[in-house]
Amino acid sequence: MASGSSVDGSLWWDPFSLLLTELEQAPLSSLPPNLAKKLKDNRSWFVDTVSRFKPPNEKSRNALNSPKVEIGSHQLTVQPELKEKALHISSYLCLDEVQSYILVERSLKDDDLGANSIAQEFLHVILLQYYMERQCLLKCTRQILMHALYVGTGSKEGQIMREEALKLISDGLERKLISVMEELLSSSHPEQMDVDLFTLWAEETLIEDNLVLDILFLAYYESFCTCDGGRWKKLCSLYKGITSGDYNIGKLAISSEALQSSYHVKVQLLLILIETLDLETLLQMVHDEIPFRQGVSVFTLSDVQEMDSIISSFNAFELKEAGPLILAWAVFLCLISSLPGKEENSVLMEIDHVGYVRQAFQASSLSYFLEILQSDLLKESDGPSAGYRSVLRTFISAFIASYEINLQIGDSTLNLILDILCKIYRGEESLCIQFWDKESFIDGPIRCLLCNLEGEFPFRTVELVRLLSSLCEGTWPAECVYNFLDKSVGISSLFEISGHSLVDDMSQIVETHLPVHVPGIEGLFIPSNTRGRVLKMIGGHTALVRWEYTQSGLLVLLLRLAQEPYLDKSEEAFLTLDLLSRMVSVNTAVCFALMEIGSLLHLQETGMAGTLEKNVWVVQTICTLVRTLPPNSSSTALMSMCLKILGKMLKCSPSHVAVVVLKANIFDVVLSTSIGDVGGSASSSGSWLLSGKLAKMLLIDCEQNDNDYPLAISVLDFTRQLVETGLEDDSILALVVFSLQYVLVSHEYWKYKAKYVRWKVTLKVLEVMKKCVLSISYYKRLGDVIRDMLLCDSSIHNTLFRIVGTTTQALENIYVSRLYELMEIEGLQLAMGSVLDILFIMLSSFSKDISSSLTVFHQAVLSCTTKPVPIVAAIISLISYFRNPTIQVGAARVLSELLIVADYLQQYSFGNACFGLDDKQITDLRHTVNHILLEKSAWNKDLFVAIVNLLTSAANYQPAFLVAVFAAKESTDLQHSNANDVKQPANEASFEPQGSKKSSLVDALLHHLDRTNDLINSNPRILLNFLNFMKALWQGAAQYTHILKWLRSSENLWKQLSNSVSLIAGVEDPLLENLTEKEALNLACKYQCQSAILEIMAYEMFLQKKFSHAESLVKHAVESKDRIENTVYIEKSKVVKDIMSNWCKSTVLSNLIKSYASCEYNNEKYFHAKLAASLFMVHVMGRLATSDSRTLSVSLVEKILVISKKLISQPAFSELLAQYSQHGYSEGKELNTLILSDLYYHLQGEFEGRKICPGPFKELYQYLVELKLLQTYQLKYEDDFFLTSKPVYLFDLVRLRADMGLDMWDFSEWKASKAIAETMLCCMQDANSMVLLASSKQSALKALITVLTVNEDDSPTRNAIGAKIPDQVVLSCIDHICQCFYATVESLAPILDASEDILCFLAAQAELLLHLMRSAYKSLSLHAFVLVLKTLGSGLKVLSGLRSSVEGVSTTMKLLLRLLLSTVEFTCLSSCLDGVTAIESVEELSVISNTTISLLPILCNCITTEHWTLSLTTMDFILKSFWMPNTWFPILQNHLSLQNVILKLQDNKYFASFPIILKFFLTLARVRGGAEMLVNSGFFSSLRVLFAESLDGRLFSPINSEGGISNSSDKIEPGCIWGLGLSVVTAIIQSLGDGSTCTDIVDNVIPYFFSEKAHMIFYYLNAPDFPSDDPDKKRPRTQRTQTSLAALKETEHTLMLMCVLAKHWNSWVKAMKEMDSELREKSIHLLAFISRGTRRHGEPAIRGAPLLCPPTLKEDFDCCKKESVIKSRHGWFALSPLGCVSKQKFTAVSTALTIKDQATENNDPVSQTYFSDAIALQIYKIAFLLLKFLCLQAEGAAKRAEELEFVDLAHFPELPMPEILHGLQDQAIAIVTELCEANKVDRIQPEVQDVCCLLVQIMEMALYLELCVVQICGIRPVLGRVEDFSKELKLLIRATQGHAFLKVSMKSLKYIISFVYPGLLQSEGLL
Known about the structure:
elongated, five-stranded antiparallel beta sheet, 89 helices
C-alpha cells in the first residue's frame, strides 16, 4: 500500500458554519483583518457556491486507500472505520469520496457535543451536517452582499466589503447562481433514500433554492450587476417553468415546510423579475420627462418586444402566479408609453398594456401581492425582506402613478391598494423614512393618495388612520405622522347645499350660516359663517365639504374616541388606538405631546363647555374606554392597545398617570382583602383582589385574536411598569398576585390561536416575576407579601420547574421533532433562560434570610421528587446544552448557588436534598466543563466565567462534589450523596486510585494558567475569576491534595503567577480622572488579580511551614517511600520562597509596597458626589413646587418630598423665611420656592469652588450634605468575580437613572434640568470607580501584608522559609508609606463623617508600617523613627477629631495607637542597642524628644476615646523614656483630664485596665506636681473604692471566704493591683516630702493599710519553713505550695511602703503601737528564710528546692528562654533554678516565699536562666527592704534612747539574730567576690554591677543591725566567726579592687566593719 497520496486542493473546505458566525458577529463599522483574509481565501467557494462539492470520482476513491491523503496544504489520516462510512455516504449523497471522508470525520468529532443525540440514524446525522455546510456557504455569500449593502461606501471598511462583493460578481457569481438554480430545480433524490430522509432532502434542497434566489436578488437590488434583456428572459423562462410544473419543484413540496419553501421560490423569482424591470428608473424618467431613447434603461426596444412575447404567453386565468407578472409588465409598458416622444416608438404604441391590466384585474392578480405580504417570506425570513418590500413599494407607487389611482375608484380596489401599502410600510422603518422624505420621488404617488384621504377627514377616517398607522414606523416617521395630523388645515363633513349657502358656483365655495355638527363628536361644531370647498357630491344636494376650520386632527380623533356611543364603530376605534399606540411606542416626544393635547384648548371655541385638565385628559379618556369595554374579542384588542398607550404615558409621568389609572379602577379591583391576607397559600380568585372580567378577557383574546400584541402581554407589561413606579398600592399588589398566581400558573393551559404566543406570554410573565423579585428590597409594605408568595406558593414553583425541568437530550429531541415549530423552540429556550435567572436571584437573595424552618421553595428546589426532573439533575444536564450558551450560563450560575445553599441548609438536616448524581451525570459534567474551559473561553467569555465560578463555589462549599468532578476515572460514586453529607471532606483514601492519573480538568486549568500574563492586561476579569478558583483550592488544601499536587507539577505555575505580579509592579497607574468606567473597572480587577495571587502565595508558604514541621516530626522515623515522596514534594514547593527572595533582592517588592500604599480613596470625590446630590435634590424640590413631577418615579418623588419637609422644618430655613418676609423679597412668588432657588445657587457656587459664607444657607448646606440623601440608592456590589475582605457599597446608578426617567427629559420641560442630573450621575460614577479601585488596592495591600507576615514569621523554621527584606528597601518603603499615610490623613482633615473605606485603608497602611517597623527596627535610623512618629501624630490628631459614630474610626485609631506604642518602644530600644556612640548627633536626639513631646497633647485627647488604655500606656512609656518631668509635666497639667482617668478605677468594667492606670499614676506620682494632682483629684478615695471592691469583694483576693489561701492561678494576680496601688502611694509620699500635706496623708494611710488591710500586709510578709533533710519532718504532700515572680514583686512593694511610712517616725509610732511588734517579727522570719539560702559551689544541695517559683506569664516563659546574665553559683542564684522548672501543675498558693518538699529528687542539673536570675534578684531586693525597715526601726529606737538618755530594753524593737545576719553577709560576700573575680578582664555588664551594689548594701545593713544587736544585747561574736569573716572579707576586698563602681560602697562597708569588728581591718591590712 502506498504511503500517501494527494488530491486536488479544491476539495478541502474549512467549516462554513464558523465563518458564517464570524460574519454575522462582525461589526458593521470595522472588518477584522483575519476575517478579511478568510473571505479572500474562500472567494472561489463563494463564487462557485455548492457546485464546489464534487461528485464521486475514482482518484478520490483510490486516495482513501492510502494511510494519509494530502489535500493541498492539508493532510488527512485515514481511519479504516471512517473510510467505510465515507464511501457509503459518497454513494448515498453523490459526493466526492474525500469530501465525504472530511464530512464524516467532522460529524463524528462533533458527536460528543450532541450530534448523536440529534438523530440516532447515522445517515440522518451526516445528511444534516452536509446540508448545513452547503447552506452556510450560501449564507456566507448572502451575508457578504448584505454587509456591503448596510455599510455602503462611506468608510474604508465598507469599501473593502463592497469591493469583495463586486469581485464575486466580476468572477461570475450571477451566472453561477443561475446555473446552480437550474441544477437544483432539476435534481433528483438518491434511489435508496427512505421516506424520512427524502423529506429532509427535499426540505433542504428547497432551502438552498431560497438562498440562491436571495443572493441573486441582492445582486440585482444593490446594482452589483444589471439584468439585461437576455438574462431577464432566462429568469422569466425559469419562472414560467416553475409555475407551470415543468421542474420537479412541485414534487418536492411533500411537507408543510417544503410547501412553504416552494412558494417562496416562486415569490422570490417574481420579485426578482419585477425588480429587474427597473421601475424606479422609469419613474425618475417620467418625473424628469426624459424620452426612452435618452434614458438609462438596460432594455432596448427589441428586448421589450421579445420580453413582451414571453409575457403574452402567460395566461392569468390558467396560472395564478402569472397575473402579478402580467400586471407588473403592464405598469412597465404604461410608464414607457408615458415618456416624451412615445409617438416615435411605434413598437411601444402597438403593445396593448391596457389589455394586460384588464386581464390581471379580472384574474384578481393585485390581491396576489397582498398574499405575498401576508406570507412568512417577509415575516420570518432572515433574508433581504426589506428589499422585497421595497420592490413591492416601487411597483405599487408605479401602479398608482400609471393609472392615476385616487379616491374616485371603487372602494374595493382602493381598500386593496391601501391594504397592500399598509403591509409594505408597516414594520419597515427605512421605507417609512423614505416616504416622509419629500425628495423621494418614488413615494410621490403614494403621498398624493394620502393627501387625498386627509382631505376627506374625518368623513373617511378609517382609511386615513390605517395608512398613517403603517407609516409611523420609527422615531422620525412617528413625528411626521403626528405633525401631519396635528397641523390639519380643515375638517370635512356632509353638507346640504342650498341657494343661499353657495358662494361661488364655479369654484364650488359654500358658506354655512349655522353651526355645523362634526360627525362622531357630540358637542363639536363648525362655527357659523365658515366657508368650505365642495369635494364631491354624494347625492342630490348633499355634498362633502372641506371647511376652512383649523383643528388638530389628533384632537378630533381623541374626541371621537371619547364618545361612548361612538364605540360601536370598533374598527375606527381599533385603528385610532393602533395609531396612537404605534406613535407613542417609537417616539417619546410624541407621547409627551399627545398628553399635552387639549391642555391649552379652550373648548368654548368649539361649543363644548369647560376646559381640559393638563396631562390627564388623554389618560382619563383611555381609562374610561377600558373601563366600559364589554368582554368580547374586539374589546380585548382595544384594551390591549389602551394598556400599551397607558404604559408609555406612565413612563412619561408616573405620578400623574398612576394616580388616574388607579382611581379609574380599570381592572375592577375589589378592595375587600387586605394586603396581609394575600400570601403564598392563597389560591382563590378573591386573593387576587380582581373580578373575573380580566381573566375572561384574557381567555377570549388568546382563543380568538391573532395580533402582534396580545392582551395578556399588555396587562403584564402594564403591571411591570406599575411596579417600576415604586408606588405601593393595593391595586398594584392585586395585579402582581393576578399575574403570578393566575397568569403564570394557568397560561400554559390556555387555547392559543397561534402556538408561539404562549411563549410570548410566558416570557412576559417571567419578566414581571423577575422585576418583582428585584424590587422586593425597595418596597417597604408590599415587599414582604410578594416575598412570602414567591417562597410559599407551590403552584408558582411547579410552573417554573416545568419550564426548566428538562434535560439536554430532551431539548435536542425537540429540535428534530416535527411537532414543534422553530418559534416555539426559541420561545422555550428564552423562557428557560429567564427562569434560570429568576431561580438564581431567588436563591442568592432569599437563602440568607431563611428562618428555622425551610420554605416551600427551598424544599422543592432540593427535592428528589420534583417533577418532571429533579432540579439539580436538570440544571447539571442543561450546562451541556451547547446550542444555547445563555442557558448554559444560567444553569451554571444556578448550580453555583445551589451548592452554596446546600451547604447553608445543612444546619437544618434537610435529608431530602437531591444531590444523588450517578456516574454518567458526573462524567458528562466533567466533559462539559473541560470542553468549555478549553474550547469556549475565547468564544463565550460569560460562559467561561460562569463555569469557573461554579468550580469556585464547589471548592468553597462542596469539596466532595468538586473532587468527583475532577476525578480522573470515568465513574465516581456519588449516588448516596445528599444535603447531609454533600459537604463532607474529600476522602483521600477513596480518591487515591485515581490520584496517580492527572485529571483532564487540571490540564484545562494549566492551559489558562499559561495565559495569565496576557489576560491581566487584555481581560483581567477573566483572569480574576480563574484566580479566585485557584485561591479556593489553596484555601481548602486539605481536601484537594491531589489537585494541588497536579497543579504544582507544572513548571510554569509559580512562574506565571509571579510574573503577573512582577510585570505590572512599578508600572504607574493612570489618573482616575483620565479613565473611563470600564478602564477603571479593569484597573480594579488588576489589583484584585494581584491580591488573589499574593493570597495563593501566602497559603503556599503557610503549607510549606506545615510540611516542614511535619518533616521535622518524622525525621527520626524509619525512612519510607512516603517520606521520600514528601521530601521531594517540599523541595519542589520551595520555589515560592525563591520568588520572595528574588522580589526582596530586586525592586519588585519595593514597587508593590509603594504601589499598594498609595490611597485611592478620595474623600473629595465622595463629598463632591454628595454635594451634587444635594444640588440635584434642591433643584427638584423647586421644580416640584412649581410644576409636575414628570418622569420621576413615585418612590423618588416621595423621597424628595420627605426630604423637602425636613429641610423646611430646619431652624435655618425658618430664619430665612423671616428674613425674606421682613425685606419683602417674595415679589409675588411663594417664599419657600424663592429660598430653594437661592439655596440652589449657593450650592452651585460651593460645587464650583465658591465657599458659602456662614449663616442660614451654610447651615442648610451642611444639613443636606450630612443627610445622606441618596443612601437608599446605595447597593452592595455583589459581582461574582469581585471579592474583597469587606462589602463594597456603590451608588446604584442604573436604578437611580430609571427612577429619574432621565432618558426622557429631553422631550419635556425638564430638558433644561438634565445637565444637573447628568452632573450628579457623573460625580457618583466617579465615586463608584474610586471606591472600586481603592477597595481593590486595599485588598491587594492586605494580601501583601499577609505574605510578608507569613514570610517573616518568627517560627523555628524561619530561616528555611522566610526571606529577609533588605534594610535599604525597608527604609525606602517606610518613607513612602509615611508620605502616603500623611496624604490619606490630609484628605480626612476637613470632613466630619469620613467614609469607612478610607479609614480601613488608613488602618491597612498602618498595619503595613507596623510590619516593616518590626522587621527592621534594629537597623532603622533615628530619622525613620522621627518620620513615623510625626506621621502617626498627624493621623491620631485627625482621627480624634472625627465623630466616634463614624464606622471604622475606633478600629483605625486602635491600630495607630498600637503602632505608635511599638514605634516608641523600638525607638528607645534602638537607642539602647546602638548606645551613645551610634547616635549621629545631639540634634537627632532632640528631634526625637521634641517629636515625642508633641505627641503628649494628642495622647491626652485620645484618653477620652475607648482606646484610652493604649494612650495611657504609650504616654507612660514616653514619660519614662525621653523627657525629664519638668518638661512633660506642664503639658500633662494643661491637657490631661486626670479626674476622668481616676474615676475609671471605680468602674469594674475597666478591671483589666487597672494595672495600666496604676502604672501611669506611678510615673506621675514620682513628680511632686503629679503627686499633688493625684491627691487633689481624689486618688486615695478611688484607691479605697478599688481595694474595697477588689480585695474585700473577692474579685481577686488571695484570701478565700474560709480564711484560707485561694488558688491565684484561677484569677488575676491580686498583687498586680495591690502592689501597684502601694507603689503609687509610696511614690506620692516620697514626692511630697516632709510637708504638712504629706503628714496628713501618712496619718491617714498608716491606719488604713495596717489596720483595715493588715491581713494583706501580713499575707505578703509570711515566711515559709525551709525544707528539712530529715524525712520524719517532711510536710504532708497536700501542703505543697508555689509562688510566682509577680508575687515576689508584691512583697517588694509592700516593704517599700513600710519603709517610706517608717521614715515618718512620729506618725508611725503613734499609729502602730499594737502592730509594730508583730510586723517586725514577720519581717525577721522572712529575713531568716532568705538568710538560709547560703549555698556555696561544691557544697551538697539541700533536699528539694527551697523555693518553687515556676514561670506563669508569657514574659516569664520568654525569660526562661534567655541565658543567665549573672551566672553566679552561690546563694539564691544557685538555689532559684531548682524551683523555676515547670514540669507539672501544683496547687498554687499566693504567698511571697514558699517551700516545697519532694519525695524524690531529680539528679539532672538544672541550668540557670534569665528567669532564675530574676527570682534571685527579687529575693535580694526583698532582703534589702527588710533590712532597711529593721534599720529604720533600730534608728528610731536609738533616737528614742538619746532622748531618754537610756536604752529602754522593754520597748526596744525586735532585731534579727546574728546568725540570720551572718547568713546574709556570707551570701553577699560570696556572690560579689565571684562576680568580680569572673569579670576582672572584661567590663562588667550593668546588670551585674547593679547586683553587686545591691548585695554590698545588704551586707552593710546586716552589719549595721549586727552592731545594734551586739551593742544592745551584749552578745559576743560566735567562736570562729571572726576568722571566717576575715578570710571572706579579704577575698572580697581583693576581688573588688579595680572595679570603680564599687569604690564608694566598699568604703562605706569598711566603715561599718570597723565598728562591728574593731581592729580587724587594721590587723589584716585591709584599710
